[in-house]
What we know:
By secondary structure, the protein is an alpha/beta fold. It has a domain of 207 residues: Spore Coat Polysaccharide Biosynthesis Protein SpsA, Chain A (Alpha-Beta Complex). The protein is 36% helix and 22% strand.
Amino acid sequence: MKKYYCTYFDRNYLAKGLALIESLDIHESCPYQLIVICLDTLTLNFFNFVNYKNVKAISLNEVEKNDTELKRAKSNRSLIEYYWTLTPTILLRLFEWYPWIKIITYLDADLFFYASPDPILHELGNNSVMLHEHRFSPEQQYLERNGKYNKGILCFKNDFNSLKVLNWWRNQCNKWCYHRLEDGKFGDQLYLNQFPIRFKGITVLQNIGAGVAPWNHIQYEFSEDNTGKKLVNKKPLIFYHFHSLEIVTPEIIVPSKYFPTTPFTIDIIKICFEQYAQQLYKNFQKLQSIINNFHSDL
């Protein structure tokens, strides 16, 4: 069965988005399509110029077309807050445009796969929606105020329960989606806490190899087996979420801008960051060879 993924990004995440694509190409064994909502013209033009066989690029204008609620939201929040607002609307649009899609998996653009994502979808089972927890390490537990669940990966079936969830989430985000804590809300993410309370058919991802990130990695043991497969607590490392990784220059990378006190051990750097940094460097070289004076604002 063909798998469908979606993500969105602008020029600032283009190098990271390409790394996500390249990691999926390596580790996704099934036929798949990644639908990329291009948040600026440069990103759309890039994908129109460079053919990635598993990528379908769509302009943000297509998502916004004839959506007065979305346009109203766009006028009263910052650009990043508007990007967050888009998440449920994008998912609803894709089910509307492509009704044959049975399951779609949303991916943040700064994920990178090290193994097959098959075990993730397997856990969805007969449920409609799959969330995954931050799994904060004890030192980062205070951050749960921003949300028990992380938006980095979400799975939705094209069914009644899922559409009910997405429509509720869209309505909430259109009304309020800001980069601050206020009355139990924070961006688009804290709304996820309400999913298991308000709706049926919600499951939570249990696989320890999915969702490793700066806010939880210090509690895990990283290693490689004799074939070079990357492991976390002796289980396959499926993906790492490189949240707030900052590219100062193509040669200088800050592992996590917003988690400066989080330890990054030699094992974490070797197992997770080394390969990703090398891929980002290659992507920057590629982008600079295609786009005159290419730079991002990360």
